[in-house]
């Protein structure tokens, strides 16, 4: 099993990731697994959150006006964090099915202004480590998966799908989460909180070099079939430093913890060599995590 993208390995399946749902053009079309989830409408969420941020700024600038609500503050922070470059680290686990679904660790960085980003996903399958690398460059996403023996180009290149292009009906109870063919962004949470959420202050927050406020949130989705709860740490510059998100659907619970850093830093990303790339019309794997 290779640790980095080799020159003769074609990715096939990462078992730990596919348990959370996915789609593969090479495997013959869309298919669903036990835990499908709602696709994050990043573009719509960013626009919505940005509008809220503008309203929040106006409230803050007007003397004598009431302070912005906890909901407005959190949505403003989500929009601010999503609008410039950032690095992140995320851990995902399904405690109720720990024997079936291995924990997934994701790290990366994204620059929404220049549309470049990189992500590395690590999980385990049959007690062996599995790794996926993803690179976003402009309108394209490059994907590589370790732990396979199929001969072929190791990287897949495909256009980044439009937000919400999964083709899945939006009124079904899909788990909130992330997908490998879209950059990890906090923007999707903003629209969910605005439509069905409650936010309140939960105390102080802080870390190396920053301090701020912790907010707790809850949201019931799809007529109560799914719920989200968790906390958002917002620093004094109104940026999100940490997200803890708990998604519940019946007896199944998915825990996610995401930290953000390196705000505004450059995100260097290079495309794989042309000889190492196979182009397709859709991304190789739409794995959910």
Distance between the termini: 22 Å
Order of helices and strands: HEEHHEEEEEEHEEEEEE
Morphology:
globular
Proportion of residues in extended strands: 35-45%
**Which stretches of 5+ consecutive residues score pLDDT under 50?**
6-63, 166-174
Helix content: 10-25%
Secondary-structure content class: alpha+beta
Total beta strands? 14
Mean pLDDT: 75
Major sheet: 12 strands, mixed
- Output the number of helix runs: 4
- Tell me the strand order in the biggest sheet: 9-10-11-12-13-3-4-5-6-7-8-14
Radius of gyration: 19 Å
Characterization of the model:
- With 289 residues, the protein is an alpha+beta fold.
- The chain is built from four helices and 14 strands.
- It has a twelve-stranded mixed sheet with strand order 9-10-11-12-13-3-4-5-6-7-8-14. The protein has a two-stranded antiparallel ribbon with strand order 1-2.
- Helix 2 crosses helix 4.
- The longest helix has 20 residues.
- The radius of gyration is 19 Å and the shape is globular.
- About 23% of the residues have low confidence.
List keywords for this structure.
single chain, 289 residues, alpha+beta, twelve-stranded mixed sheet, two-stranded antiparallel ribbon, 17% helix
Write the layout of secondary structure elements.
Blueprint lengths: L14 H4 L3 E3 L4 E3 L10 H20 L8 H14 L2 E8 L10 E8 L4 E10 L2 E10 L2 E6 L9 E5 L27 H10 E11 L2 E12 L4 E10 L4 E10 L2 E10 L15 E3 L10
Parallel strand pairs: 8-14
Antiparallel strand pairs: 1-2, 3-4, 3-13, 4-5, 5-6, 6-7, 7-8, 9-10, 10-11, 11-12, 12-13
Helix pairs in contact: 2-3, 2-4, 3-4
